[in-house]
Amino acid sequence: MTTTTSEELTAPDAIITVRISGKHTDGAYELFEVDAPRGEGAPPHRTPWPKCYYVLHGRMAVLLDGELHDLSPGDAIAIPPNAPHTFTVHTPSAQFLAFAVGDAMGAFFRDLSAHGLEALPRHGVTL
């Protein structure tokens, strides 16, 4: 068993804590804890990696491929690669886990935290 230390990253729409990084899974998967305030997240965008969200607390809506999904604690949603998506938090805040296959999402979050939106094209993220 490998234990990990938490790494906190800042995105325009949330604080992201790396719970399991790709370096601890040989790049197979990553797990993040996302703390987002009330309001809209990033504009609808596409990422080249698959991921899923699991809501821990708060209420949020995920717009995925033009369909709105209301999520509460215990709810989860799978987001396929390159599917247009975004989220909106309806409570004062929401906390959810984001699980991603591979290690691309962590590299993107680190670049986004350090360099802002100029990181998007470097990781194949499109608006």
If you had to describe this structure to a student in words, what would you say it looks like?
- This is Cupin domain-containing protein.
- Residues 35-91 form the Cupin type-2 domain.
- This protein is mainly beta and 127 residues long.
- It has a single domain (7-116), classed as Jelly Rolls.
- It has one helix at 104-115; strands at 7-11, 14-20, 29-40, 51-57, 60-64, 67-71, 76-79, 85-101.
- Strands 1, 2, 3, 4, 5, 6, 7 and 8 form an eight-stranded antiparallel beta sheet that branches.
- The N and C termini lie far apart (39 Å).
Query: Structural class, please?
Result: mainly beta
Main sheet overview: 8 strands, antiparallel
Uncertain segments: none
Number of domains: 1
The SSE string, one letter per element, is: EEEEEEEEH
Can you identify the CATH class? Mainly Beta
CATH architecture label name: Sandwich
What's the CATH topology label?
Answer: Jelly Rolls
Entry keywords:
127 residues, mainly beta, Jelly Rolls, eight-stranded antiparallel sheet, 1 helix, 8 strands
Helix/strand layout:
Layout: E1 7-11, E2 14-20, E3 29-40, E4 51-57, E5 60-64, E6 67-71, E7 76-79, E8 85-101, H1 104-115
Antiparallel strand pairs: 1-2, 2-3, 3-8, 4-7, 4-8, 5-6, 5-8
